[in-house]
Amino acid sequence: MLKKVFSAFLIICLIFSPVLTVNAYEPSGLTITANAAMLVSLDTDEVLFEKNADQKVYPASITKIMTTLLILESEKYNPEAKIAMTEEALDLISGTGSSVSLLKAGEEITQLDLVYMVLMSSYGDCSLLAATYYGGSVDNFVNMMNTRANELGLTGTHYENPIGLHHEQNYTTARDTYVLTKFALQNDTFKEVCESTRHTVNASLSGKRVLSTTNFLQDNTTNYYYTYAKGVKTGYTDEAGRCLVSTASYNGYNYMCLVFGCPPNEKKHFTESSDLYRWAFKNFEFKKVADTSNPIAEIGVDLSLDTDYVSLYVEKGFTTVLPKDADDSTISIVPHPIDQRVDAPIKKGQVLGTADIIYAEQVIGSVNLIANENIEKSAMLTAIRAVKNFFTSSYMKVVYIIIAAGILVFILAIIKLNSKSSKKRKIKYVPYDENKKR
Asked: Which of 3, 10, 178, 387 has the fewest CB atoms within 10 Å, measured from its CB?
């Protein structure tokens, strides 16, 4: 139950966290061969580089990020409890070409070791074992994966198997994978496992063995080692090419790099990722482009005797990642008040609009604008408005029309009556004949 509550809380945090801010730059001097790629600041969600970020790609074993997440979210998951390899899992993996653990049917390991074997070593038989144990069946587990994808808002993702074996209906996007991975990294076990380079497993039949990470960026015994890199997952099939999701942290800056579809016969998924990290660390820095100390705009205020306007301030300071040589003159704040005028009372901190943060003619973020003071409502002005509103209301307009119509009818009636009276008072003129009188 606690896992479900915690999981729901994390989803709410993800939904209400800042939306990805697209402000991609062109990395000078770098050639990115990946079919799709992203470099994103984990601190601000700023997209520093993207290439076909919403294009459908085949994830290969990047699929196992979702597989591992469902293991760790399952009510059945107990890190110290034992789980045994099954004949079913071994039969299902046979002939697929997937990497395997060489565990024998009936051989036991801990469930935590299973997580290492799925996520760090990328074993297909262990992924199928997890699917049948935590999902009841592979098909049901795949349904769980797709349901979870929908819950996380991964609209460009669909799963067909828990391993990443090639299938036309097993696909994702770089942007979806960023959202999924950032969410998964909030799980401490997921983070610890994917950032490990070695792990010792004590299998019940074959004894101790040392697992190694498949991510050469974080393995200092390889030629691709990059000292600041950590996790997360590699992937490869002929159709998907070389894929890598990784993170890197240096001097307070944290990034995630995602590359899909790198050339199959080369290790450019490692070199291009480390090149992008070096480019970001060298050329970008945090810049505070909006603070809470200066007013951004003002709105007229009605129904107050104290003031006729209220100043609007940024609710929270806005810091983003921008090029080190960014000119402050190219950064602007465009306010969007809720209206030209508002009525008192107004509470200090009340949200009265938003503002777009614009750099080089692109919106890089949005902030709330709030009132900086309490403004009381005047009872007298409120009463005056009520009287005014009453006499200018639609009801009164009807009354005015009726009265005007009545007056008009009355005037017309008077005119008509006067006209009739005038006719009755007319006397026929008879000329006077003096001869007849005589």
From this structure: 387
